Amino acid sequence: MHSKILRVVPRLFSLTSWKSCAQFTIPTRKAVPKDETLEVKRARLLYQSRKRGILENGILLGNFFSTYGSKLTADQLATYDDLVNGGYPEWDLYYWICGKLL
């Protein structure tokens, strides 16, 4: 019902056009040193888990990693690193963690 009411309005103070918005890509993540030890990786991931874009993810990921981070294998740490630093939008990540986004 509401979608029929909505109409396209001009972007008054925007420097970008609609076409350039459609081509938006998520920036690539920073390179991690290849010689990073597991201890350093765990410390980095703990910090990155706690310091998120939204407080909710910081609490969820920080508590998870504080509890289970020391028990994760190198492969599991790599997968978790991809999850935490993969460039996913914060709210999408939050809803996925909570089981609300499939």
Structure description:
It is found in: Mitochondrion matrix. Helix 3 (about 40-50) runs antiparallel to helix 4 and helix 3 packs parallel to helix 5. The protein contains 6 helices and no strands. It has a domain at about 35-100: Flavinator of succinate dehydrogenase (DNA polymerase, domain 1, Orthogonal Bundle). It has helices at about 1-5, 20, 40-50, 55-70, 75-85, 90-95. The mean pLDDT is about 80. It is mainly α.
Structural class: mainly alpha
Number of strands: 0
**Helix percentage range:** 40-55%
Give the end-to-end Cα distance, rounded to a whole number of Å. 25 Å
CATH architecture group name of the domain at 35-98? Orthogonal Bundle
- Given as residue ranges, the uncertain stretches (5+ residues, pLDDT < 50) are none
Q: Please, what is the average pLDDT?
A: 80
What fraction strand? under 5%
Largest sheet: none
What shape does the CA trace take? globular
Q: Helical region count?
A: 6
CATH superfamily grouping of the domain at 35-98: Flavinator of succinate dehydrogenase
CATH topology of the domain at 35-98, by name, is: DNA polymerase, domain 1
For the record, what CATH class of the domain at 35-98 applies? Mainly Alpha
Q: What is Rg? A: 18 Å
**What sequence of helices (H) and strands (E) makes up the elements?**
HHHHHH
